[in-house]
Amino acid sequence: MSASIEMPVVKDFEDGLHPIYLDYSATTPVDPRVAAKMIPYLTEHFGNPASRSHPYGWTAEKAVENAREEVAKLVGADPREIVWTSGATESNNLAIKGAANFYSGKGKHIITITTEHKAVIDPVRELERQGFTATYLDPEPNGLVDLEKFKAAIRPDTVLASVMFVNNEIGVIQDITAIGNICRENGVIFHVDAAQATGKVHIDLEKLPVDLMSFSAHKTYGPKGVGALYVRRKPRIRIEAQMHGGGHERGMRSGTLATHQIVGMGEAFRIAREEMDEENIRIRRLRDKLLHGLQSIEEVYVNGDLEHRVPHNLNISFNYVEGESLIMAVKGIAVSSGSACTSASLEPSYVLRALGRSDELAHSSIRFSIGRFTTDEDVEYTIKLMKSKIDKLRELSPLWEMFKDGIDLSKVQWASH
Amino acid sequence: MAYSDKVLDHYENPRNVGTLDKNDPNVGTGMVGAPACGDVMKLMIKVNDSGIIEDAKFKTYGCGSAIASSSLVTEWLKGRTIDEAYAIKNSEIAEELALPPVKIHCSVLAEDAIKAAVADIKAKQAAKVEA
Fold first, then answer.
1. Cα A373 from Cα A371, distance rounded (Å)
2. What is the number of other CB atoms lying within 10 angstroms of the CB of residue A253?
3. B33/A414 Cβ within 8 A
4. Catalytic residue among A64, A176, A341, A383, which?
5. Rg of the Cα trace of chain B?
6. From A340, which residue of chain B is nearest by alpha-carbon distance?
7. What is the complex's ipTM, to 2 decimals?
8. What is the pLDDT of residues B65-120, one digit of tens each?
C-alpha cells in the first residue's frame, strides 16, 4: 500500500482517551480513499439508482453497478449474484431464513456450529420457534469443525447448513471447501458467513461449493451499514425475501439503495483485492512479533488453532488474572475481552467455552486484532503494557501465589459464597 | 462501567499487598471466594497480645471493586481490636467505595474475609491456651 495513507484517527495514547486501536475485528476505520470516493454520492450524485428517467438516477445506478462488480471480483462471483443489504447481520438473516423457508418442503433440519456469530445463531433459533429443528455442533478444541462429525450430523431432512469462514473471536479458518463438498453430496444448501474473511483470505466462489455467502463492508475498511449477500445462480438458489416493498434487488431485498454506502463498499473491496497479499504479509509479521512478545509471559494460552487462522487475530488467555481487572488494566489499548462484565453475572465468551476452555481462562482472554494502520510501535507498546500489567495483577493474585507454591488449584476446596 | 474515584485509587495503588507468615501463632488467615466465581480474597492479620491488629495484608484475584474492597479493609483493620474488626459491615465498605448494586458482593466478600481471618486467629489462640 502507498505510504501516504495514515491512520485516520488521533493516536495519542498518553492521554488515555485515545488508546491504540487493536480491535479491527470489531470494526475498521473507513480507508480515507474509500471516504473520498463516497462523498460525491451524498451531495453531487445524490440520485436514486431506481430512477430510470433522468441522468441523476443513471449516474447513481452506474455507481452501484460498478461497486457490485468490485464486490463480485473480490470473491470470484458474477455481479448478478450479489444482493445489497444493510450488513452481514441482514445478509445472514436473509440467507438463513430466506433459504430455509423457501426449501422447507424438502426438510426442516438445519446444522450450524456453536461458535458462529449471534447473527447466525439467532436466526436459526428463530426458525426453531417456527417449527424447524437444529443441530449446533461443537468444534474441536482448536476451533475447527471435525468433518466426520459434520457428516454424521446430516439427516435425510437436513435442508441447510451454515458455517462461518473466519471466526470473529479466534480467527480460525474453517475448511469451507470440504464442508461444502459434504453439503453438495447430501443435497444440503450451504451458507457461509464471510464477514471476517474478505481481504484476509482468498475467496473464489467460482470454485467454492457454497450457495450463499454473507459480506460486510465495515470489517474491510468500508462504511458501516452496508453489506451484501451472494446468491448462487448456477445451480440457482432461491430465497424468500425478508423485506418487501418495491422489488429492488430482483425482489430479494426491497428498499432504496444507499448509493454512497454501496460505492464505499465497492471501493473498499477493490482496495482489498489489490492490496491484500501485500498487506497480509505485513500483518503476519506484526502478529508474530506480538505473539512472540506475549509468549515471554508465563502461563499464557493461545485460543484457537494458530496455523488455520488469519494473521489479523490473536486471542490469548492470561492465567491467574481476573478478566475485569485485566480490562481495567489495559486501558491504553482498545481490545475486546472474552468476559462480558457489564452485569452482575459474569458471562464468559460462549466461543471460548465451546472450545472447552475453563470459565477462568475464558474470562481472562483478550482478543488483539491487527489491521491496515497498525504499526510496529503499536505492537511494541502493547507488549510492554501487557507485561507490566500482568505482572502487577499477578503480584496481587492469591491464585498466582498458590500456583508458584506448587499448589494444584483444581484440588483446593474453595469456600463457596 | 464507571468506577468511583476511590475504587480507582485503590485499584491503581493498592495498600498492604502481600502476605504474613501463616505459621506465626499471632497471624490469622482468611481466604474466601472461588476462582470459578471470579473472585478469591486472601486476608492476613497480625494480632498483638492485647488483641489489637498490628498489621494486615491482602491478595485478591477479582475485579477492580474486589481489589479495592480488600485494600480498603486492610487500612481499616490496623489499630482495631479483633472484636471491632469482626463488627465491620459490608455496607460500610460499599458506602465508602460508592459501589454500584452489581458490585455489592465484593464488599460482602471482604466482610467474609475479615470474619474468616478473625475466626482463624481465635482458633489459634484457643489452641495456644489449651497447649
1. 6
2. 25
3. yes
4. A341
5. 14
6. B1
7. 0.93
8. 999 999 999 999 999 999 999 999 999 999 999 999 989 999 999 999 999 999 99
